[in-house]
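Hi Prof. W.,

I finally got the DUF3219 family protein prediction working! I wasn't sure whether to trim anything, so I left the full sequence exactly as given:
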Amino acid sequence: MVRKIFLNDKVIYVEQYKEEEVQGFKKIAVSFKVTSEAYHDIATLLYEEVFDVAVPEKKAGIPGENSDLLYFDNKSL
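And this is what came out:
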């Protein structure tokens, strides 16, 4: 089970992880909690649009493009 990912060397501890192949590309979806203290840094990171994604448990690292990442669920904050 994937418990953490890295976005541009920033560790993100995830609660849910889903991976699928879409038109020859790897797509991942994650759910994670963000504290109010870390919210600005995480939001700034996600708005960069292009970043490196590493999934240590899968021994995978890929360049990523932020296309469907910005979904916020207030219940998980």
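The mean pLDDT is 78. Does that look reasonable to you?

Thanks,
D.
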